[in-house]
Amino acid sequence: MLIWLTLLVALVAAVALVGAVVMIVRDESPPSDRYFVVLGVLLLLLLGQAVGGCIALAATERAVEGVTFVAYLWTAALVVPVGAGLALVERSRWGSGVLVVMALTVLACQLRLHDLWVAA
Predict the structure, then answer these.
(1) Residue 10 to residue 31: CA distance in whole angstroms
(2) Residue 46 near residue 106 (C-beta atoms within 8 A)
């Protein structure tokens, strides 16, 4: 798996996390268009990582836990549109809180993906 892609995804997710925390502190709602551009970039990176991770898993000789690895790949990719949709429906601090949880979930999945790949 590409380590640089994992780090790039984690960086963009951290930017999304900081942006969501700033929205909570400033009591801003709804999220701005710039924020959704960041989420779009994050989603594209996660989809690329999911496809590339599945290809890397199929091509490797390592003893990677395949089902768990693929589950983390696709969970990280699917949580972004779900979180964005919930944030658009809930136009309060709770909507921004959903974005914080979404970004933390992506970061946790990236950490676990890295651990699964390196441990094998």
Answers:
(1) 20
(2) yes
